[in-house]
């Protein structure tokens, strides 16, 4: 009962406005979503992006962010300018003047990077090169087993996995891991495999080190869980 990575979800004060930004940035098309708005990939990304309504303020850097790739310095500059036109802003997180990547925030302050051309780690990846995460080596091992994605990096307590079908990598930077003051603004949704059973997926994830959690979600069709680092994720009902 290996789940599929169905979506990366953003909590958003204005889901439609944030979806318009990312649609313009990625060139993805919007789709109906029962709880907000979704964007569907037009490449090998393998997951959708969902934008869900929330009035919780953003007070700390996100636990996850996108690393977007570029093919040349001109391409990198064009992507940065496109983001700024769509409503992004530049961020200084201490990267220094010599940093080759560009750090930006979307209109609701969610961080993302536009990576320099020639980055060997993301050379085989598409426009979304990575979902870069703050997390331990243990949580990288957990997600490798949970999704049955092989480790493509495991060094100095930094880990990365990638689907055998391609698409972005998911990376974890190792210690020190930032304190978690509350619910993450980004989380992932998992879906049972075709013909699979939600409860069987949940039980398997528990045996790997996840836990069920109660965020006050009430009577909903999905199961809210936390990975070994305490990061929330959802297991959707079978479809």
From TrEMBL:
<dbReference type="InterPro" id="IPR029068">
    <property type="entry name" value="Glyas_Bleomycin-R_OHBP_Dase"/>
</dbReference>
<dbReference type="Pfam" id="PF18029">
    <property type="entry name" value="Glyoxalase_6"/>
</dbReference>
<feature type="domain" description="VOC">
    <location>
        <begin position="124"/>
        <end position="238"/>
    </location>
</feature>
<protein>
    <recommendedName>
        <fullName>VOC domain-containing protein</fullName>
    </recommendedName>
</protein>
<dbReference type="InterPro" id="IPR041581">
    <property type="entry name" value="Glyoxalase_6"/>
</dbReference>
<dbReference type="InterPro" id="IPR037523">
    <property type="entry name" value="VOC_core"/>
</dbReference>
